[in-house]
Input
Amino acid sequence: DQQVKQNSPSLSVQEGRISILNCDYTNSMFDYFLWYKKYPAEGPTFLISISSIKDKNEDGRFTVFLNKSAKHLSLHIVPSQPGDSAVYFCAAGGVKAAGNKLTFGGGTRVLVKP
Amino acid sequence: KAGVTQTPRYLIKTRGQQVTLSCSPISGHRSVSWYQQTPGQGLQFLFEYFSETQRNKGNFPGRFSGRQFSNSRSEMNVSTLELGDSALYLCASSLDRGEETQYFGPGTRLLVL
Output
């Protein structure tokens, strides 16, 4: 039962343009959502999060949008830079019975071309 | 402030052996969670520790266990290793339970031969 899904395994974008990564979830009990960036052989790096009571959160080049009715969130990166090339994971948490457990999507590999 | 540290970074074991991995959380963080990353299953939650007690456990066999010490450092142990246990094991720490953001260490890459 995959509660968090990232349907696009990869994304290629030109430097300077917008990268849009999508994530869908099925469990309406999730209380918050996070995006992580991961390079090979390293741990995930926290990028940005959003609470389920909000529909948008912005931090520098990163903006996360949450559509609760559609159970969908997206991460916008503007402008995209070559250093953004990595695998991006969305994660969901906050289900009371699950404590600090995060449920991850399968990841989207982003390639930013110079 | 130093980040989450994990030791060792790389490990090679043979089937049937056991292994212990260590995690030191960010100073002041009291909650430690462990995750397994494999190409086939992605990132999966193993367990969470807080105040030296396991608070939550993922869907893994009993061969996977862990503990947390009074200084919040944590270890996880895998006994009777199987080939399928080859993975990147990640530790994440957060300030408290219910804290939204978890910060990950670099991981321990385990190869079981």
